[in-house]
Design a protein that fits this description.
Blueprint lengths: L20 H8 L3 E5 L2 E4 L1 H20 L3 E2 L5 E3 H7 L1 H4 L6 E3 L5 E4 L4 H9 L10 E10 L14 E11 L2 H21 L4 E5 L12 E7 L5 E5 L6 E3 L20 E4 L6 H8 L7 E9 L4 E9 L6 H8 L3 E4 L2 H6 L17 E5 L8 E4 L5 E6 L1 H4 L5 E3 L9 E4 L2 E4 L1 E15 L1 H5 L4 E2 L5 E2 L2 E8 H11 L1 E2 L2 E2 L10 E5 L4 H17 L2 E4 L6 H11 L3 E5 L1 H7 L1 E6 L5 E5 H15 L1
Parallel strand pairs: 3-7, 15-17, 17-20, 29-30, 29-31
Antiparallel strand pairs: 1-2, 4-6, 5-6, 7-8, 8-26, 9-10, 10-23, 11-12, 11-23, 13-19, 14-15, 14-16, 18-19, 21-22, 23-26, 24-25, 27-28, 31-32, 32-33
Helix pairs in contact: 1-12, 2-6, 2-12
The structure holds adenosine-5'-triphosphate and magnesium ion (MG).
Length: 578
């Protein structure tokens, strides 16, 4: 590709809304163009990277026997009404009416659409299992689109769906996708980990789900990992344990103490000279579902934080939220002084599993300026207590896999892929039945498997760049070689053209033959675009020693070679970089 006749513009500055490196570099290197918040146009070099990503994904999907389809981007509202998601998808799904008055929407995901194709096509277990995938646009009207194409509103996703007669078959295909995903991200040169993900309130814990997280400081996902026991889970899902703590098990009488103007655990603990974990943190939440609303009290060790996702999964409501001060007043609850003892009203109380129920704790007394000391849950509350894991995992916790134990670390990641065993949720909702081997009708089980195609490009840059620009992994680089001509004379210009033609036969070469630009400018552009190998040809080296300069972008390593050695050297270097 000759730049003299190409379409490419770089920028020294980045726009104010670009706060992370990949966003800044993608704009500055002329890969994308913003049309509105969360909407981007892909320019020629950005598109080439996206196409490289797509090619690798296609190859690995085809290898495991998944077949490519392309579903309509606009889907009929009635499918979403059938599944019940027309309402529950909320504002992220953009809905419209067509001229005939029918509901339609822009696909945020395609479980309904694929299940509709499936139910109209497949009738027997003999046609199972089947895996279909597409690489297509998705639209999600994200509340806060940000970081360029990392969290866009319109983006490209590879989404795949599989259908099965039984769990055994789903497990096998799930394992195929797991391996294919690992190959895909390996081939792209990404440093990633696979973590357990949150399965929502789904099933009975039978549904496997994993996320593929590219490691990067700017990543929005928090991940708990352990080098000792290999535990790895998204913090939304992670279950880890407190290091041994000293609790008061003396079983003293419960006692009302005055705590004037004290509302926080810290203030009360300092005042009563106890440790924060010897207090209980009481949080009032409401859960809202279509048909009911419920208020409950959540208890945690004083220095623990609530994992709202665990709470939502446990109570099974569509939405949960902490009560506001006004709502607390309406419920007769006293902010800052909440506690499970003498609550003054019937209310569901849920204990976090880290709380020893025979220990003595300080809790709010449900009246201003008072706390109880020596509250013992098992002794002082009637009936069986509701206990479940609700706390947010944190660094330094103990994690366990089987009999292996270790200390948890917290790191940041970018979710580039997600695989999920859906069970029969959608086949049931859309009444997609097949006959099993005994002639009985069953709802097949489904798996779904997503990859953020455009997000990958941003994630790769986030992980591979320096202060001068991008450092593309070879597999997804828009071109392999950036050939910069700094020729002044006609003779060397001709030589450059000849060398370009030669290289272009075998490699993907971007040829900077722009006539009126100086070497400094061209080198800056080359650093910014960050193709894996740079070749420079100009009068000085060539006329003196007949040499052409090669630089490896990643290491900065330079070497000078003769014209004859150029192609074999590039061949070797590209092999090394692959
Ligand atoms: P996130 O938690 O980041 O919002 P998600 O869990 O909602 O993502 P999935 O429904 O699992 O996303 O979609 C599959 C993949 O699509 C994700 O793993 C991610 O790589 C990509 N993706 C999701 N939302 C966006 C977005 N707004 N912009 C770009 N890529 C996205
Ligand atoms: Mg996800």
């Amino acid at each position: 590709m000759k730049l003299s006749s190409g379409f490419w513009q770089t920028y020294k500055e980045h726009p104010n809304d670009a706060t992370i490196a990949s966003h800044q570099l993608m704009i500055r290197a002329g890969l994308i163009h913003k049309s509105q918040a969360g909407l981007y146009n892909f320019l020629p070099f950005g598109l080439r990277a996206v196409q490289k990503v797509e090619k690798i994904i296609r190859e690995e999907m085809n290898k495991i026997g998944a077949m490519e389809v392309l579903m309509s981007f606009v889907t009929p509202g009635e499918l979403w009404q059938e599944s019940g998601r027309w309402d529950s998808m909320g504002g992220q799904m953009v809905r419209a009416k067509d001229r005939a008055g029918r509901d339609i929407c822009l696909s945020p995901t395609n479980e309904e659409a694929i299940t509709d194709i499936f139910r109209k096509t497949i009738k027997s277990y003999k046609q199972l299992p089947v895996s279909l995938y597409q690489i297509n646009i998705k639209f999600r009207d994200e509340i806060r689109p940000r970081f360029g194409i990392m969290r866009a509103r319109e983006f490209i996703m590879k989404d795949a769906y599989s259908f099965h007669e039984n769990w055994e078959s789903l497990d096998l295909v799930y394992a195929d996708f797991y391996r294919a995903y690992s190959n895909i991200f390996d081939r792209m040169g990404l440093n990633f980990i696979v973590v357990e993900a949150d399965a929502g309130a789904m099933g009975d814990g039978q549904n496997k789900t994993h996320e593929f997280q590219v490691l990067a400081k700017s990543g929005e996902d928090k991940v708990i990992v352990c080098e000792d026991c290999d535990y790895a889970a998204n913090i939304e899902k992670a279950v880890t344990f407190r290091k041994p703590l000293d609790f008061d098990n003396s079983g003293k009488e419960i006692e009302l103490v005055e705590t004037p103007n004290m509302a926080t655990i810290e203030e009360v603990s300092n005042f009563l000279k106890i440790k924060e974990h010897q207090s209980l943190k009481s949080l009032a939440y409401s859960g809202i579902s279509e048909d009911k609303e419920e208020v409950f009290l959540v208890l945690l060790l004083g220095d623990d934080e609530l994992n709202e996702i665990k709470l939502k999964n446990h109570v099974g409501h569509e939405h949960i939220k902490p009560l506001t001060e006004n709502e607390m007043m309406r419920e007769g609850l006293v902010k800052g002084q909440l506690g499970p003892y003498n609550l003054g009203k019937e209310m569901r109380v849920i204990f976090d599993a880290a709380i020893p129920l025979d220990g003595s704790f300080t809790t709010g007394a449900n009246k201003a300026d008072f706390h109880y000391m020596n509250f013992v849950p098992n002794r002082d509350l009637k009936g069986e207590l509701e206990v479940t894991d609700l706390r947010l995992s944190r660094a330094g916790d103990i994690c366990k896999i089987g009999d292996k134990e270790g200390e948890a670390t917290l790191i940041s990641g970018i979710e580039v892929g997600h695989i999920f065993q859906l069970g029969d949720k959608y086949t049931k909702a859309l009444d997609a039945k097949v006959l099993d081997r005994n002639g009985k009708t069953i709802y097949p089980l489904m798996g779904c498997y997503g990859i953020g195609v455009t997000r990958i490009v941003a994630a790769a840059i986030e992980q591979h760049h320096d202060e001068n620009g991008i450092i593309w992994p070879l597999a997804i680089a828009p071109f392999h070689i950036h050939f910069t001509s700094i020729a002044k004379s006609g003779e060397i210009k001709e030589l450059c053209d000849e060398v370009y033609e030669e290289m272009n036969k075998e490699f993907e070469v971007l040829y900077d033959d722009r006539p009126k630009l100086g070497p400094g400018f061209k080198f800056k552009d080359a650093d910014l675009l960050g193709l894996p190998i740079r070749v420079v040809l100009g009068e000085r080296d060539y006329k003196a020693d007949g040499l052409i300069e090669i630089t490896v972008r990643k290491t900065g390593e330079k070497r000078k070679v003769s014209k004859e050695d150029l192609i074999p050297t590039l061949r070797d270097l590209l092999k090394e970089l692959a």
